[in-house]
Amino acid sequence: STIPISKLPPTSQERLVSSDSKTILYLAYGSNLSAETFKGARGIKPLSAVNVHVPNLALTFDLSGIPYTEPCFANTKYRDPENDPPKQSDYHKDRWHKGLIGVVYEVTPEDYRTVIATEGGGASYEDILVPCYPIQPGGKTVDPHPSGSPFQAHTLLMPPEKNFKRRTDPSYAQPSARYLKLITDGAEEHALPSEYLGFLYNIRPYTITTRKQKMGQVIFMGAWMPLIMALFGLGRVLADKDGKIPDWMATLMGFFFKVLWTTYDKIFKPMFGDGERTISKGEDDELGQENRW
């Protein structure tokens, strides 16, 4: 039987400072915060967990997904903790300026391979080591400059220069309500600081508001989804012992998503409307949904 994700034992101090352990410390910050994703869809069985603050990283949503359905996914980027002043960004998802908040799971090498394989087999992210500061569950606020001694953990990051899914305006797209809920559910399960939860709750999801968008979604998914499923299925079959796919497969995926998004930009967006960001509903073309921005 598996342990509920919120009941995982805290990772021991000995493990946090060990450099020769047989287990791997993996920092999750997106949908892998959620038990539904991490233990359900991915089938990972973490051994322990600790909430962390990572001042050197920031949460982004600049990995493009699928227009009209999953416009973007979480990513992270390097930041300078000494030069990242708060500002009222037009984009709610850019308003957090205290560094990345997440959960470090202790996992087996086999489970970490599954993490890599189910995150695109290295085509979407790079595996990096980052310093993490443990924080207590259930806290209220986040100190921009954490105290204590950090430990090293692996995480997955797609740098801008290698992000073949990055859009011209990387903050324009809104994540789906489904995807956002996985992140907020996971943040609640782990009792991340309430200040950070407030930030997550304020991120606005992508909502279809017109009949044209709904039609575009149906046609787009019908045309592309079988190919996407086949491509990711092939990637899992070809993944090596570390969960990574061959370079030629990564190149093929990059080309595939470039064509997918070009099709959206040139054909679907002009014809069916915005598939990345909620638009105000028209008077004569509404779906009975509230106007959200």
Automatic annotation (TrEMBL):
- Residue stretches spanning the membrane: 218-239
Q: Which domain of life is it from?
A: Eukaryota
What does the record give under GO molecular function?
gamma-glutamylcyclotransferase activity
- EC number(s) stated in the UniProt entry for this protein: 4.3.2.9
> In which residues is substrate bound?
Y26, L27, A28, Y29, G30, S31, Y179
The active site annotation covers E119 (proton acceptor)
**Stored InterPro entries:** G-Glutamylcylcotransferase (IPR017939)
Keywords for this protein: Lyase, Membrane, Transmembrane, Transmembrane helix
UniProt entry tagged with the keyword Membrane: yes
* Name the UniProt record assigns to this protein: gamma-glutamylcyclotransferase
Record the organism.
Amylocarpus encephaloides
